[in-house]
């Protein structure tokens, strides 16, 4: 037997595969990649565009519209472009890469990839929003049918899918409230909107943007919206109540119908922010609680991608009394064909160009149809089960507390507090979040102001397994151990991420902001304007 064919001796120790550690050995890619404008060289090209065929009559561009100099675009080959964006993609975290339960209130659930195939189909991707109705009957049917599904889910009479995101949907509802009271000649009198401090901040922001005075209710001693404070605030100047339920604490307001009745008795309208609907889907409905309007975030509850803050999709649902004020055009069906109705004289107008974020409408429609009514309820129940399982695990970590509603279950998320850990170690919640990045996970604190000291908000959704939740809880336990035994490691994190700690003071100084390449060259490189 030649040496080439000698058997290799393998000892049991050599063959042993290292067991998976309790915590992953994570190291984020760090490419130190330049900006795309700093790459390439003059004359490099990704595509050589041929000159027009001389036989084709190309009309001259008017002299007034011609550029004086070529645009200052990057000049790169296709391979350079591919490498650049592949490197950037490796420096990311995201729902397709990590256990994304740490972005509480964002409802980071799995977005089925089969739904992306539907969207990329040329019959969707190649549509033009100005096509004649008769040539787009399929997508109009999808929009119309999705509206019917959301009517059933909310209990409302009409739906619009035009808003481009959740906050845009809240603003749409506020615009319809304003139009409603304008039509009744009461807008000058009703100039106040009531919300709660643990509702999404967009409710107060949209009401203020629309010209209303905002009254914010704080929680009572148990963490519930204070009904006595509502009774004191409501009156003839009340236009509406804008409220999230469950709130971002994960606490469901059991007196929500009483809240609605109090505002209705004063002549106001009630708008239900259902951005936290993932734990009550198929269980409660906005209309059954007496609400006049509501909205959903399709990129949260109905699984369409968040896409780093856009493009998302929002849906507003209203009673028949408010239907005349819906944005136009509405999608209608006459029994034989679908069509766009632009003749809506009381409409608040358009909330965005054309018909909404159609790719996400298709994804949401596919997700609902794949689950069916029983599947939607099962998703909600699993989300609640996952949340309360994680709550049980996190409660056992030293330094964590769960403020408000002692002994009561939470719905789909929890706002925890690291106040005890901070008092013991000086480590802030933000430090824990940055250290969590060293284990390849996201982490979020809270909206401001921090009413819950040293907050942390977790929302598991229905997408994550028990093993996923155990791993995430183990990461938090490990970071808490480090905070008590080696706090400097946590305070100086991240250590294994693509970037190190960002100095926050730069975010407060407009002189350091550079939101374009031209601004970067002027402000950072010191080149003349």
UniProtKB/TrEMBL annotation:
GO terms for cellular component: cytosol; glycine cleavage complex. One of its GO terms (biological process) is glycine decarboxylation via glycine cleavage system. Keywords: Oxidoreductase, Pyridoxal phosphate. Residues 184-302 form the Aminotransferase class V domain. SUPFAM superfamilies: PLP-dependent transferases. It catalyses: N(6)-[(R)-lipoyl]-L-lysyl-[glycine-cleavage complex H protein] + glycine + H(+) = N(6)-[(R)-S(8)-aminomethyldihydrolipoyl]-L-lysyl-[glycine-cleavage complex H protein] + CO2. InterPro entries: Aminotrans_V_dom, GDC-P_C, GDC_P, PyrdxlP-dep_Trfase, PyrdxlP-dep_Trfase_major, PyrdxlP-dep_Trfase_small. It is an enzyme of class 1 (oxidoreductase). PANTHER family: GLYCINE DEHYDROGENASE (DECARBOXYLATING), MITOCHONDRIAL, GLYCINE DEHYDROGENASE, DECARBOXYLATING. The glycine cleavage system catalyzes the degradation of glycine. The P protein binds the alpha-amino group of glycine through its pyridoxal phosphate cofactor; CO(2) is released and the remaining methylamine moiety is then transferred to the lipoamide cofactor of the H protein. This is glycine dehydrogenase (aminomethyl-transferring).
């Amino acid at each position: 037997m030649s040496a080439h064919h000698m058997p290799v001796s393998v000892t049991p120790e050599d063959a042993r595969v290292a067991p998976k550690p309790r915590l992953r050995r994570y190291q984020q890619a760090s490419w130190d990649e330049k900006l795309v404008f700093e790459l390439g060289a003059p004359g490099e090209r990704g595509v050589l565009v041929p000159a027009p065929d001389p036989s084709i009559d190309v009309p001259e561009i008017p002299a007034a519209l011609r550029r004086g100099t070529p645009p200052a675009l990057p000049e790169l080959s296709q391979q350079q472009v591919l490498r650049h964006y592949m490197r950037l993609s490796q420096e990311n975290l995201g729902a397709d890469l990590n256990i994304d339960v740490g972005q509480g209130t964002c409802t980071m659930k799995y977005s089925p990839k089969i739904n992306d195939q539907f969207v990329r189909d040329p019959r969707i991707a190649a549509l033009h929003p100005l096509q004649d109705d008769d040539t787009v009957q399929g997508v109009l049917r999808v929009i119309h049918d999705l509206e019917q599904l959301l009517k059933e889910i909310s209990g409302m009479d009409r739906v619009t899918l035009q808003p481009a995101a959740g906050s845009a949907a809240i603003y749409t509802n506020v615009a319809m409230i304003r139009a409603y009271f304008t039509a009744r000649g009461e807008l000058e009198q009703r100039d106040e909107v009531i919300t709660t401090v643990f509702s999404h901040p967009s409710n107060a922001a949209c009401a203020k943007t629309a010209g209303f005075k905002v009254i914010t209710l704080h929680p009572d001693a148990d963490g519930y919206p204070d009904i006595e404070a509502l009774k004191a605030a409501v009156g003839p100047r009340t236009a509406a109540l804008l409220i999230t339920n469950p709130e971002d604490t994960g606490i469901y307001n059991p007196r929500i119908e009483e809240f609605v009745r109090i505002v209705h008795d004063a002549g106001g309208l009630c708008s239900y922010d259902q951005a936290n609907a993932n734990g009550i889907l198929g269980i409660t409905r906005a209309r059954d609680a007496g609400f006049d309007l509501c909205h959903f975030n399709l990129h949260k509850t109905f699984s369409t991608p968040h896409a780093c803050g856009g493009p998302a999709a929002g849906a507003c649902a209203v009673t028949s009394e408010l239907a005349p004020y819906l944005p136009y055009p509405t999608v209608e069906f006459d029994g034989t064909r679908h069509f766009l109705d632009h003749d809506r004289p009381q409409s608040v107008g358009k909330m965005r160009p054309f018909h909404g974020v159609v790719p996400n409408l298709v994804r949401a429609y596919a997700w609902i149809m794949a689950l069916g009514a029983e599947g939607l309820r099962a998703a909600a129940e699993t989300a609640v089960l996952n949340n309360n399982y994680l709550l049980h695990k996190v409660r056992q970590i030293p330094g964590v507390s769960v403020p408000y509603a002692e002994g009561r279950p939470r719905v789909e998320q929890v706002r925890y507090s690291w106040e005890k850990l901070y008092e013991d170690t000086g480590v802030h919640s933000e430090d824990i979040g940055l250290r969590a990045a060293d284990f390849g996970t996201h982490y979020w604190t809270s909206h401001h102001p921090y009413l819950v000291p040293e907050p942390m908000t977790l929302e598991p959704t229905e997408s994550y397994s028990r093993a996923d939740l155990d791993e995430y809880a183990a990461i938090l336990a490990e970071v808490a151990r480090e905070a008590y035994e080696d706090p400097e490691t946590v305070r100086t994190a991240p250590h294994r991420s693509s970037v190190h700690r960002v100095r926050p003071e730069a975010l407060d100084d407009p002189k350091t902001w550079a939101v374009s390449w031209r601004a970067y060259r002027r402000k950072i490189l010191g080149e003349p304007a």
